[in-house]
């Protein structure tokens, strides 16, 4: 899949791109069934919230040597529609995956992700250049009432905002102070709600400010995040690195699998 010049320019200008239903229902069903299987297990890299103890976030479904492995997620991470677009946006054929995660925001109970730039965390992982892209795939319909993602267009061009450690949510991370977000909102276009049918994809820059609200709907909101980095931009050694499921040390260039490999399960 080759990006048009208009798509490339829009990404550079806005810091994100949306592709409605880039993955079809058969692919989404397979990924959903696999997520359902994996969230029953107990493993490092699975975070739970609420009384039912169901997983809210899980990591590392794409690597064969771990408990959360799923061949369908490996295929997803290597299709021309995911890896191929990331290669074009980063203008580099040699990419690896910093991490792969699935956020399952439960109906009614699922809570917010505060405004943040992903590079706030990734810089602390030892990555030097804020030149990374995330491919987000919707596994169900994303709606505003359901706590969809919001992007602040053009915010990736405003540099780095010094983050604070947000520990009020189940998955703790570096968020952007409200004062800084409000200041940017004075000058930038309104935040865009990233809504869409299952299989819709949003691709965004690691400095694009994004957030999501409470899920007030009766339906869960499941979204996959595939975070690609250049092999040459892999993290440097740091003290107390985060675990491999969130800060991968597999810096081998990823190779393509066929576009139909999620369905065929042919990973050769
Ligand atoms: C994230 O930005 O890491 C997650 C946001 C979300 O799933 O709503
Ligand atoms: Mn994020």
Sequence-ordered SSE layout with sheet pairings:
Layout: H1 5-14, E1 16-19, H2 25-38, E2 46-48, E3 55-59, H3 71-77, H4 80-90, E4 95-105, E5 113-116, H5 119-124, E6 132-138, E7 149-151, E8 164-166, E9 173-175, H6 178-187, E10 192-194, E11 201-205, E12 210-212, E13 221-230, H7 261-264
Antiparallel strand pairs: 1-11, 2-3, 3-4, 4-13, 5-12, 6-11, 6-13, 7-10, 7-12, 8-9
How would you explain this protein's 3D organization?
The protein is of the alpha+beta class and about 270 residues long. The protein has one domain: Jelly Rolls, CATH 2.60.120.620. Helices cover about 25% and strands about 25% of the residues. The chain is built from seven helices and 13 strands. It has helices at about 5-15, 25-40, 70-75, 80-90, 120-125, 180-185, 260-265; strands at about 15-20, 45-50, 55-60, 95-105, 115, 130-140, 150, 165, 175, 190-195, 200-205, 210, 220-230. The strands form three sheets. Strands 1-11-6-13-4-3-2 form a seven-stranded antiparallel β-sheet. Strands 5-12-7-10 form a four-stranded antiparallel β-sheet, with no helix packed on it. Strand 8 (about 165) and strand 9 form a beta hairpin. The two termini are about 20 Å apart. The relative contact order is 0.25. Succinic acid (SIN) binds near residues 103, 113, 149, 210 and 212. Succinic acid binds near residues 113, 210, 212 and 223.
């Amino acid at each position: 899949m080759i990006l048009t010049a208009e798509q490339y320019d829009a990404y550079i200008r806005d810091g994100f791109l949306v592709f409605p239903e880039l993955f079809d229902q058969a692919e989404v069903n397979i990924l959903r069934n696999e997520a359902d299987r994996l969230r029953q297990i107990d493993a490092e890299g699975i975070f739970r919230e609420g009384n039912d103890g169901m997983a809210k976030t899980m990591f590392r479904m794409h690597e064969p040597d771990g408990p959360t492995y799923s061949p369908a997620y490996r295929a997803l991470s290597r299709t021309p529609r995911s890896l191929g677009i990331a290669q074009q946006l980063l203008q580099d054929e040699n990419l690896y995956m910093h991490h792969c995660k699935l956020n399952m925001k439960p109906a009614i109970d699922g809570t917010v992700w505060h405004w943040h730039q992903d590079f706030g965390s990734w810089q602390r992982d030892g990555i030097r250049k804020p030149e990374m892209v995330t491919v987000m795939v919707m596994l169900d319909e994303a709606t505003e009432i359901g706590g969809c993602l919001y992007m602040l267009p053009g915010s990736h061009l405003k540099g780095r905002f010094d983050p604070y450690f947000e520990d009020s949510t189940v998955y703790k991370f570096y968020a952007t102070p409200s004062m800084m977000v409000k200041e940017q909102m004075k000058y930038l276009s309104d935040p865009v709600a990233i809504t869409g049918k299952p299989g819709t994809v949003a691709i965004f820059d690691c400095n694009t400010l994004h957030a999501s609200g409470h899920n007030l709907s009766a339906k869960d909101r499941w979204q996959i995040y595939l975070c690609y980095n250049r092999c040459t931009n892999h993290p440097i050694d740091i003290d107390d690195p985060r675990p491999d499921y969130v800060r991968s040390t597999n810096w081998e260039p990823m190779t393509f699998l066929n576009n139909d490999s999620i369905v065929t399960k042919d990973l050769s």
